[in-house]
Amino acid sequence: MPAPLSVIVPTLNAAGDLALCLESLLPGLEAGLIREVIVVDGGSADATRAIAESAGARLIECEAGRGRQLRAGAAAARGDWFLFLHADTALSRDWPERAAAHMDTRPELAAAFKLKFRSDARQARWLEDRANHRAQWMGLPYGDQGLLISRALYEEVGGYADVPLMEDVMLVRAIGKKRLVLLDAEARTSAAKYERDGWHKRSWQNAWLLTRFLMGAKPEDLAKAYR
User: Fold this and answer.
1) Based on CB atoms within 10 Å of each CB, which residue in 62, 71, 166, 221 is the most buried?
2) CB-CB contact of 189 with 175 (8 Å)
3) Between helices 122-138 and 199-214, what is the axis angle to 10°?
4) How far apart are CA 184 and CA 176, in angstroms?
5) What angle do CA 68, 71, 76 make, to 5 degrees?
6) CB 186 within 8 A of CB 113
7) CA-CA distance, 82 to 1, in Å (whole number)?
8) 3-state SS of 102-148?
9) Contact at 8 Å (CB) between 190 and 17?
10) CB within 8 A of 122, min separation 6: which ones?
11) Quick one: how far is CA 10 from the chain centroid?
12) Cα 95 to chain center, whole Å?
């Protein structure tokens, strides 16, 4: 029987982070959990595609747009389960054990991982706690936390929308809080944007964008304010 999991990673000029992301998937390969790793590239001008190919990933090229790229990856995937993962996120070594247990015992539910920033800043710990509480109590994990979901549930809720922003929020809202859990393994994501813009400034900007979206703003309009 083929391994159950297709890992889907959207990329755009992700050479600085992709190798670490793909390396973190090795325990899943060793455990016989991963059927394929699909990198969906949106037209990178750096070494992203070469890194993906040298790691043995299946490379798909697609017009840029994370929602569009995630959707294309799912359409090409062959597994019964999908793991959507950002290119600047690396999973902790215990992720296969947590994911396999979830897939075996709670196939009707989707799951995300606990957020952890690759930073020693005190503000990083504050934002991690805030994000993990949001995921647990509101059913709204960050896209950086990954998403583990069965093909059946993904197709039931309509999959990722082809939008320039908030594709992750739209999907987890369609799944619903009662069908989403947080696994006890870490999604260790880059802190580059927060370190560049300032932890509080960036986090409050993101919160304001989310608030505007929940109040009815269009993803196309919000994308203009997001960098």
Assistant:
1) 166
2) no
3) 20
4) 20
5) 125
6) yes
7) 17
8) HHHHCCCCEEEEEEEECCCCHHHHHHHHHHHHHHHHHCCCCHHHCEE
9) yes
10) none
11) 9
12) 14
- Whether the CB-CB separation of 55 and 74 falls below 8 Å is answered with no
Residue 67 CA to residue 50 CA, distance in Å, equals 23
Q: Which CATH number among 3.30.70.1050, 1.10.150.130, 3.50.50.60, 3.90.550.10 corresponds to the domain 5-196?
A: 3.90.550.10
Q: Which residue has the tokens 């934002």?
A: 127
Give the confidence band of 222 by pLDDT, cuts at 50, 70, 90: confident
How sure is the predictor about 63, in pLDDT bands with cuts at 50, 70 and 90?
A: very high
> CA 149, CA 112: separation in Å to the nearest integer?
9
Q: Which residues pair with 34 in a beta bridge?
A: 5
* pTM, to two decimals: 0.96
Give the number of residues written for the chain: 227
Cβ burial, residue 215 (10 Å; 0-12/13-18/19+): exposed
Tell me how far the alpha carbon of residue 147 is from its chain's centroid: 6
225: tokens are: 């304010």
| One-letter amino acid for residue 49 of the chain | R
pLDDT digits (tens, 9 = 90+) for 138-160: 999 999 999 999 999 999 999 99
Residue given tokens 């949106």 in the structure block: 42
How far is 36 from 23, CA to CA, in rounded Å? 14
Distance CA 160, CA 146 (A): 13
Burial code of 95-124, b = ≥16 C-beta within 10 A, e = fewer?
Answer: bbbbbbebbeeeeebbbbbbbbbebeeebb
